[in-house]
Amino acid sequence: MESLIWNAKEEQSMKFHLYNDIKLFYKDSYDILMRHEAQNLIPLGNIIIGNEGKDKSDWRDPSNWFMALVSNDEGIQLTAVMTPPHNLTLYATDNKINDEALSCLIRGNRNDDGKYI
User: Fold this and answer.
1) Where residue 95 falls among pLDDT bands split at 50, 70, 90?
2) Number of domains forming the structure of the chain
3) This prediction's pTM
4) Is residue 15 a part of any domain in this protein?
């Protein structure tokens, strides 16, 4: 099986994982988001709709989505989902905001010169 990660870049101890496959993103993020189900209704609803694949009209088409996770040796620290034209939704695992994870998400898959890898 191919790697579950479309692209990864280490930043200190953090790794940025950008997904282009909703099924893999669902598999990796669903249990984390369910820890605070009521709080995560929007991203959960989106990834469930995308995973089922029944309706790909308008914003429901996962091929247009931004789906990313930031992790370290302790596991997933940050989940990010955007279904354009809607806003980006973020979930800091267990509501513990990690500045390094946010920095890694912002930096994404760029090198130290700011150029995309």
Assistant:
1) very high
2) 1
3) 0.82
4) yes
| Higher per-residue pLDDT: 25 or 9 | 25
* Structural domain that includes position 66: 7-107
> Has residue 1 been placed in a domain?
no
Q: Please give the pLDDT value at position 114.
A: 62
Determine the length of the chain: 117
Residue 117 belongs to a domain? no
